[in-house]
Automatic annotation (TrEMBL):
Keyword field: Cell outer membrane, Membrane, Receptor, TonB box, Transmembrane, Transmembrane beta strand, Transport
Family: Belongs to the TonB-dependent receptor family.
Gene3D superfamilies registered for this protein in UniProt: TonB-dependent receptor, beta-barrel domain
Gene Ontology biological process terms in this record: siderophore transmembrane transport
A single cellular component GO annotation: cell outer membrane
Protein name according to UniProt: TonB-dependent receptor-like protein
Domain TonB-dependent receptor-like beta-barrel: 18-323
Motif (TonB C-terminal box): 335-352
Length: 352
């Protein structure tokens, strides 16, 4: 729930968004399916959030941005070997600025700090997993710096847009999963921090009925830091992040042309992704490889598409995915499940 306000403060335009949310969730085995081994996870989590976002027009070229939030949660483990009840409140905030030296260019910077509380899976015991009694919330500290450009009528009736941004995210008290051989179980606790750093780029150009879009992502580095130990540039064994490591580099190019007063559209997309940003750590012994890493390989994928407006009530779409029938596994996949090979699709949409 939210409500926006717009008013003048010291003769300057001010926008404020006030809101809040509430979440209640419950998990447990279906009736009649309770087992003692392995222990079933059962629990209730409640979480609230109250926030305020503001934007102040300092000058015709400078906007100031700020936000504040208050969050709280409670988690009750109702399993037969429960963890202790968890209750926490935390604050988050952000500050930033936008600067427009000319109409077509905007520079921006932003710093934010936001808490994340443990989920039911992370905070309640069950299925050979035990939550630490002193499990704390994560705090993400994020720095964003970037710029955007927008130009019109460079040659004719055309439009060029370009965005580039740098991000540096440090997650304090990162919630991690590890294998404890002496207890023969997985353990959920906090490590010191995790860090993600990279650059994102997007651009588009449109002239008449022709459009081309391109994007690129590059991760400068990812590291995980356990308490009292040196940071490592590899995933932690048995941690959930094992299969959520993005590619070092990824690019995409999308081209589209429209004909016959925009009734026929023909386009295609080329996508490339590199290997993982950081290597996989050696899994442990025994049951530690319960979360084995999915080591996807670099791949280039080509997709084609077309759309025809037959009349105001009827549209036909035809696509060919993975034109060259490449065998590949999608990045950030939790299993060795290959993506579909060359796939043809024909669809008809009718409206009445």
């Amino acid at each position: 729930m939210s409500n926006g306000l717009e008013f003048d403060m010291y003769n300057k335009l001010t926008n404020v968004l006030l809101g809040g949310s509430y979440l209640a969730e419950k998990t447990g085995p279906a009736k009649g399916f309770w087992t003692q081994n392995p222990h079933q996870r059962e629990g209730i989590k409640k979480e609230y959030r109250i926030f305020a976002d503001g934007k102040y027009e300092l000058t015709s070229k400078i906007n100031l941005l700020a936000s504040i939030e208050n969050k709280g949660y409670s988690l009750e483990d109702r399993g037969d070997t429960p963890s202790i009840p968890k209750n926490e409140t935390a604050y988050g905030y952000s500050v930033g600025a936008e600067y427009k030296p000319i109409k077509q260019v905007m520079l921006y910077s932003r710093y934010s700090q936001s808490p994340r509380f443990p989920s039911l899976v992370e905070g309640a015991n069950g299925f050979f997993m035990k939550a630490d009694d002193n499990l704390q919330h994560e705090t993400m500290k994020n720095i964003e710096i970037g710029s955007s450009f927008g130009f019109e009528n460079l040659m004719a009736d055309d439009e060029l847009k370009f965005n580039i941004g740098y991000f540096n995210s440090n997650i304090d008290n990162y919630i991690s999963r590890s294998w404890q051989w002496d207890k023969f179980s997985m353990h959920i606790d906090n490590i010191d921090r995790a860090k993600f750093e990279g650059v994102e780029l997007e651009t588009s150009y449109k002239i008449n009925n022709f459009t081309v879009k391109a994007s690129a992502n590059y991760y400068i580095g990812i590291e995980f830091c356990k308490k009292g130990k040196e940071c490592v540039n590899e995933n932690l064994p048995s941690d959930y992040a094992t299969n959520h490591i993005p590619p070092k580099k990824s690019y995409s190019l999308d081209v589209n042309q429209e004909f016959f007063n925009n009734k026929l559209s023909i386009g295609g997309k080329v996508s490339y992704f590199d290997k993982r940003t950081i290597p996989t750590a050696m899994v442990g012994r025994g049951s530690a490889p319960l979360l084995a890493p999915v080591d996807y390989k670099p791949a280039t994928i080509v997709d084609l598409r077309s759309s025809l407006i037959i009349n105001k009530n009827l549209t036909a779409d035809f696509t060919v995915d993975n034109v060259f029938d490449r065998y590949y596994i999608q990045p950030i996949n939790v299993g060795y499940i290959p993506s579909p090979g060359r796939t043809f699709r024909l669809g008809i949409t009718a409206t009445f």
